[in-house]
Structures are given as C-alpha cells and as structure tokens.
From TrEMBL:
Transmembrane segments: none annotated. This is Acyl-CoA dehydrogenase/oxidase N-terminal domain-containing protein. GO terms for molecular function: acyl-CoA dehydrogenase activity; flavin adenine dinucleotide binding. It comes from Mycolicibacterium brisbanense. InterPro entries: Acyl-CoA_Oxase/DH_mid-dom_sf (IPR046373), AcylCoA_DH/ox_N (IPR013786), AcylCoA_DH/ox_N_sf (IPR037069), AcylCoA_DH/oxidase_NM_dom_sf (IPR009100). Residues 21-96 form the Acyl-CoA dehydrogenase/oxidase N-terminal domain.
C-alpha cells in the first residue's frame, strides 16, 4: 500500500531547513516518549533539547541568534510538535510567540529590557498568563499604577511549564482606565502556584498561579493598550483553526493508516482529504486577516473552520479508539492520549465567540 501523503508533508520540501530538523526530533524523541511525558511530565532536559535545536528563538532575527523562520515553516513546525507530543507543544507554544512579538518591538525601535533580550536570544523560557483578560470584569489580574512601576495582583488561571520557566508574560487590567498592561515578570516568592488536576496535558506542568503584589518596572512592560484593542487582537487569534489542530489530526490519521482493520484504514482515507481542505481554507483565511490587520475579517467562516476541525478530531480519535477496542483505553495506548488531547483542544484558547460557535454546532437544528 502506498504511503499516504497529506497536504502538509507534500509541501515540506520548500520550507526552512529547521522543519526537517524538527521532524527528525519529533520522530526520534518526542513521539516515542509522548505517553511517558504525559504521565510523568516534562523535565529540564526537554527544555535544553528545544534550546539546542534553536526552537526557543526560531522566530527571532539572526542578530539574536534566531533562525528568522517564515510563517509557512512556523506553521509546519507547530503541526509537527503538536502531533508528536502535545505536552511539549503546549510548553513551547506559550513561549514562542512572545519571542516574535519582542523581536518586532526591537525592530520598531523599542529598547528591550535585559530580561526581554534574554527571551529573544532563547536563553530564558517564558510561561504565559494572558487569557484571563477574556473574563474581565468577572476575573482578571489587576494592574495598579505606582510612581515609576506597576503592581500586578490576582490569580492566573493557567500557566504551563511551571517549575521550568523562569519568567512569565502576564496581561493585567487597570480597572480605572480599562487598559491592558502586558509585562514580563520573574518567577519569585511572590508568584505562588497551585496544582491543577487535569485529565489532559497532565505532563505540561500547567498550574494556577497567584501574583502577590508583584512589582513590575516600566522597562519590563511589553505593551499597554485598551481592552477593546486587546479583544480585537484576541478575536483574530482565537477564532482560527490552528496548526496544532492539524498536527494532532494528521498524527491520528497516520495511526489509523497502519491499523490491521481495513475499515480503520478506510476511515483515514476518507478523512485525510477533508482535513487537507480545512487546513488550506483555514490558513488562507488567516493570511487574509494578517494582510488586512483586521481580526473581524470573515470571522464567521473562520469560526466554522475551527468548529469543523474540532469535530473532525473528535471523530478521528473515536475511530482510533474503536479500532483498538479495549486496549485503546489503557494508559499505555496512544488512542486514549489522542482522545483526551482532542478534548483539550476544544477548550484551549477558547473565547466567548468560539464557545458560542461550538455550542451552536452541537445544538439540534430544531433548537437553534
């Protein structure tokens, strides 16, 4: 039987050389250890490996020792990492976009703090505490302005990589002005973590972190913007089907392809072109959003694509579980790992608009 070729792998030849390096690392290290990582967690060695590969600053320009990876190659790297080990991907993806943001600020003439420069150089792993702004005013981290600094207080709902990251990127709201202040803060005695009992991505060291009046000097502030501006940007990011959705989908399709049951292979053959089509559409729409710099552009179509890939992941992971029967729900089988990962991706990065679209899709037509 011929090896199946997806839209993703077919185009790898024209991408940045780092894509091939990451693919080998995923095949030789991440995928074989994914079950163990999920159960026992990511250790410092994994972070050191990511740094050695250049993945802690792959989006940075060469002056910072980065690879200046282009958008298509970055998307493919995200797909590969998510498909091989979602726990590792989650740790990494909290960090990687911040490097790109800081590099752009440097290019625009912003003077970076020493901490920010360490991040762009790939010397410092950063966790993210940004999404609680979505819940304002019900729940958020508070930013209070002092004479020459900010004070951050409150609880961050999710921080991935706790114990591995040395700093956090935190988005806090100043209630008086309703401005969102995003800053780099060090992990210290004023940042206290509480364990989360997660059924998925349990190896990612994701915890709840409370900030006890953390002082933030102006030099470590990344941006200050109105909450309306923040929400427009967030709409642009959260409404799209993302590379990690497709990375997991292709990983499950590949496993279905080698199942002894011919019907399991038929499931893959039927679904692979559909996943390819959703991927092409999603990336094309995301490119339009970038070109227009408008997070509201064709948002209904983008949300529909995100709902479609979530639905596809639920179906494909069920198919893999069915194909493997009872052994599929053992903790030493990837079927249950992928099924739990698919559930996690339904709520990861979920805005109110995404949640509404998902629930409308799940509502019987006569009740919509």
């Amino acid at each position: 039987m011929a090896e199946p070729v997806s839209a993703a792998t077919a185009s790898d030849a024209g991408l940045h050389p780092l894509v091939g390096v990451v693919q080998r690392y995923a095949d030789e290290v991440l995928r074989p250890s994914a079950l163990r990582t999920d159960r026992h967690g990511i250790g410092p060695q994994r972070v050191a490996e990511l740094a050695e590969l250049g993945l802690l600053n792959h989006l940075a320009p060469e002056e910072f020792g980065g690879a200046a990876v282009d958008l298509a190659s970055d998307r493919r790297i995200r797909e590969i990492l998510a498909g091989a080990c979602l726990n590792t991907w989650l740790l990494w993806v909290q960090h990687a976009p911040l490097v790109e943001l800081l590099a752009k600020k440097h290019a625009d003439g912003t003077r970076l703090s020493d901490r920010a420069r360490d991040v762009v150089h790939g010397r410092l792993l950063v966790g993210a505490g940004l999404s609680d702004v979505r819940r304002y005013p019900d729940h958020y981290v508070t930013a209070e302005r002092r004479t020459d600094e900010w004070v951050f207080s409150g609880t961050i709902s999710w921080v991935t990589g706790w114990g591995l990251n040395q700093a956090l990127a935190v988005a806090a709201v100043e209630p008086l002005t309703e401005n969102v202040v995003t800053a780099l803060i060090p992990v210290s005695g004023d940042t206290v973590a509480t364990a989360l009992d997660l059924s998925a991505v349990g190896g990612s060291s994701t915890q709840r972190v409370t900030l006890n009046d953390v002082r933030v000097p102006d030099r470590d502030v990344i941006s200050t913007e109105s909450i309306a501006q923040w929400r427009r940007r967030d709409l642009g990011m959260s409404s799209d089907a993302q590379p990690h959705h497709f990375g997991l989908a292709y990983a499950v399709l590949d496993e279905l392809d080698v199942e002894p049951d011919a019907q399991a292979r038929a499931v893959s053959a039927g679904w692979r072109p559909r996943i390819d089509a959703i991927r092409r559409q999603s990336y094309a729409l995301a490119d339009e959003v970038l070109a227009r710099d408008d997070g509201r552009h064709r948002v209904d179509e983008r949300l529909a694509a995100k709902v479609a890939i979530g639905d596809a992941l639920a179906t494909l992971t069920r198919a893999l579980l069915v194909a493997r029967s009872g052994r599929g729900i053992r903790l030493d089988d990837t079927a249950q790992l992928h099924a739990r990962s698919a559930l996690f991706l339904l709520v990861q990065g979920q805005s109110a608009a995404v949640r509404t679209a998902q629930l409308e899709h799940l509502t019987p037509r006569e009740h919509r």
